[in-house]
Amino acid sequence: MGGLAAMALRGGSGGDAGGCGGGGICAGPQALGHQRRARHLVGSSHNSQFITDPYTFTHLTHGVLLYGLLWLTAAKHLPPRARFVLAMALECAWEIFENTDMVIQRYRAETISLNYYGDSVMNSMCDILAAAAGFILAALLPARATLIAVIALEIALALWIRDSLLLNVLMLVRPLLAVRNWQLAK
Hints:
The protein starts with a helix and ends with a helix. The protein is an all-alpha fold. The protein has helices spanning 2-19, 35-38, 56-72, 80-98, 101-110, 121-140, 143-161, 165-173, 177-183. It has one domain (2-183).
């Protein structure tokens, strides 16, 4: 039953991502030959238009954080499968919200995602799967190992793409010119 609910949530958010301007697997003018080169250019219009992108890794952290949030709240009394479905509902809600014009415009104005056009449907689906993987890892691994993994992932992303979940949230909520200049390599 929990698996059916999770699949319905994923399908619902994927359908909405397509309605918010994101395309299918590879929206826009990208041809197959450009996928490898463009996939990791986080400031390009190609970002989030492929099945995965560097930000897919931040969704692993979403899953870990959702696991922790639900464990700390009254939801910890729910069966594990119910907590998983609730976490996926929250992640799907984020994917829908993230692909609204309001959030897309905020990303363009305040983050390094200057040419962000929203996620493709397949990218949103893979982001949700990454959150599911993060939730499951948090459920299986000791808390200390999970925390170390999240910190390592944040550092690796900051070094690789000059962005991470923490930096992304910071720049959406309280943009700092020094961080933006560093992210743009100025």
